[in-house]
Amino acid sequence: MMTNLHSSSSSVYLFGIDLTSQSRLIQFLIISTAVLIFHVTQGYIQELILQLKPLRTYPNYFTLVQFICFTILAYAERFFFGKSIKRRKAPIQTYAVIALFTIGTMSLSNAAVMRLNYPTHMMFKSCKLIPVMIGSMLILGKRYNLYDVLACLCMTIGLIFFTLADSQVQPEFDLLGVWLVCCALVADAVIGNVQEKALKEYKPSNSEMILFSYSIGAIYLLLFELVFGSLREAFWTWWTYPIKSYVFTALFSFAGYLGVNCVLDLVRHFGALIAVTVTTFRKTITIILSFIAFTKPFTFQYLWSGAIVAFGIYLNAYGQNQKSVDTYTRSIWNRLLRFRRKTSTYHYPLESV
């Protein structure tokens, strides 16, 4: 069975604030709002970094800096706020697997965004629901309803037309970027479901999950860059633009770290698919802001193909909470009818002449 917004839950905390006494809907809205704020901020900073083309040459180094920042932030959180920094709940093998796929999704995603128009990259990431659903069926044995299938179909169709529009208006369109982001989505699907399984089975803290996943991932990346990459050249190229490279990446990582904490809370209490639905919605906001804040070619095919994807997201959300949505909609409709009856039967006094 899928986790919904009305199922029972254990204690719910967000950055140390106890939300347990709040209703499930309020908990969901608060955590989701935090996800939107931090990740939209992260997306804006990332596009600022990408404005500097020399930094695009080293996507793996960009990922390495992110992993190091995440490791430092997670260690600091456990040191200052954690009850015990030495105690680890989940096995190291689990974190090694998560780290490997996290490297896959972030490295491939960073390589893709260097080659694709930013809104197109975000649109692909918005369709993460498709591989997550497939991964949930294979890894967790979940089953989905007709609404989920239709949602996947809408997302696929909308994504195809969005990509076609991008290839027509963007002179730098790169098909390799499409393949890279597709591979990143597959890795992302595995991560979400493995994380959900680990969180339910071992109940580690968010800081533990991030610390071990990203520290092991940083070791993987560092070894790879030392053997196959150009670590020194990347370092000095970035050092040429210290503010837009290291400072902005640190801010980017800080916003991302807070966002990842919120996403892990969604995964823990509402399930991987609900979490992906929320992060998908924030990507839609990021795409809109990208067109507003940064000058880029636009065609109305972006608009209606994006609307098809958005409709797919709505179908997915409706399918997961059909009963609650129907009940809420019916209650709103009944209130409107009662209000109409009251206003139609009320006799207003005649104005004095």
Task: Describe the 3D structure.
The chain is an all-alpha fold and 353 residues long. It has one domain. Helix content is 77%, strand content 1%. The protein contains 13 helices and 2 strands, in the order E-E-H-H-H-H-H-H-H-H-H-H-H-H-H. Strands 1-2 form a two-stranded antiparallel sheet. Strand 1 and strand 2 form a beta hairpin.
Summarize, please.
By secondary structure, this protein is an all-alpha fold.
List descriptors:
membrane; 1% strand; 13 helices; 353 residues; EmrE-like; two-stranded antiparallel ribbon; 77% helix; 3'-phosphoadenosine 5'-phosphosulfate transmembrane transporter activity; transmembrane helix; single chain
Topology:
Elements: E1 13-14, E2 17-18, H1 24-50, H2 59-81, H3 92-113, H4 118-126, H5 129-140, H6 146-169, H7 175-202, H8 206-227, H9 231-239, H10 242-270, H11 272-293, H12 300-320, H13 322-345
Antiparallel strand pairs: 1-2
Distance between the termini: 68 Å
Sheet of most strands: 2 strands, antiparallel
Overall mean pLDDT score? 77
Query: What's the number of structural domains?
Result: 1
SSE-based structural type: mainly alpha
Taken in chain order, the helices and strands follow as EEHHHHHHHHHHHHH
Number of strands: 2
Please mark out the parts with pLDDT under 50 across 5 or more consecutive residues, or reply none: none
What is the helical fraction, as a range of percent? over 70%
Query: Shape, please?
Result: globular
| Residue share in β-strands | under 5%
Number of helices: 13
Rg value: 22 Å
Membrane topology: Multi-pass membrane protein
GO molecular function: 3'-phosphoadenosine 5'-phosphosulfate transmembrane transporter activity
Pfam families: UAA
Protein name: Adenosine 3'-phospho 5'-phosphosulfate transporter 2
